[in-house]
Amino acid sequence: MAHNASSFTPKTRLRGVVFDMDGTLTVPVIDFGAMYNAVLGEKEYRRVKAESPSGIDILHHIENWSPDKQQKAYEIILDYERQGLERLQIMPGAAELCGLLDSKKIRRGLITRNVKEAVDLFHVRFGMSFFPALSREFRPYKPDPAPLLHICSTWNVQPSEVMMVGDSLKDDVACGKQAGAFTCLLDEKGRYGSSDFAKSDLQPDFKVASLSEVYSLLEEKFDLMP
């Protein structure tokens, strides 16, 4: 059956995908509530949590602390992160999704607020490589768009030709939106609803419950061209 040429809508070209790591490429293993409580103290944690319903940005929160207090906070955070490394697991669907990108020669990068040690272990343990792979040693970190814009510049592509995939509205979606990229929110457990998007003014372009859905989304909605 012939199709009317005027009804054909070409797919948008996508040349690269950038992923968050914790909770996106890897199964969430860090108890962030316990970590924030350990850093802030119970009373301050309750106060900050009440003021930040969309989530606490602990790295930004401690930026203006005294050097000694800040150092202690980083040590607590790093201890929780290292405990998480021992339980590191690949997210279901990650290998298949990366296989699709590789088959289409689509670039894949990584941006995390975790440390470089975690990124290096992830690469070694799961035999996957992401380039560039930016950890929190790259400043400024998410939700600032700088790391995503740096990756686009390294790839020599426009942000509008890239998708940011992550499980955080305030970090990953905010970073992607500010950079001018497509955004895909991975929400495995249905944490986010329309009210969350309205409050933060951060409506992702796509919302999925698994990386397998990202696989289908890329095939259906985009022209994957390097």
UniProtKB/TrEMBL annotation:
Keywords: Hydrolase. Pfam families: Hydrolase (PF00702). GO terms for cellular component: chloroplast. PANTHER family: HALOACID DEHALOGENASE-LIKE HYDROLASE, SUPERFAMILY HYDROLASE, PUTATIVE (AFU_ORTHOLOGUE AFUA_4G13290)-RELATED. This is Haloacid dehalogenase-like hydrolase domain-containing protein. GO terms for molecular function: hydrolase activity. The keyword Hydrolase applies. The keyword Hydrolase applies.
